[in-house]
TrEMBL record:
<feature type="signal peptide">
    <location>
        <begin position="1"/>
        <end position="29"/>
    </location>
</feature>
<protein>
    <submittedName>
        <fullName>Defensin-like protein 206</fullName>
    </submittedName>
</protein>
<keyword id="KW-0732">Signal</keyword>
């Protein structure tokens, strides 16, 4: 009986942590979702972190809040808060 209770408690804890972490990601996606502009060469051969650094350098940190390498032709897209 105690093993079952521990297993249920652990499962509930995992579900709560999963829900909390996805809500954090969902909040970030909502706050930084407006397309700003493209940055860097085409195709952009760097990572998402390199893309974000390009966005910060080109547009500044307050407007640019995220940089993602997207599309089949690998463009660096910069995003800002709505």
């Amino acid at each position: 009986m105690a093993k079952n209770l521990n297993c249920v408690s652990f499962t509930v804890l995992l579900v709560v942590l999963l829900m909390a972490s996805t809500e954090i990601l969902k909040t970030e996606a909502q706050t930084c979702s407006t397309f700003l502009d493209e940055c860097g060469p085409e195709p952009f051969l760097g990572t998402n972190a390199d893309c974000f650094n390009c966005c910060k350098y080109t547009y500044g940190c307050p407007p640019a809040c995220k940089g993602l390498v997207e599309g089949s032709d690998k463009h660096c897209h910069c995003y800002q808060n709505p």
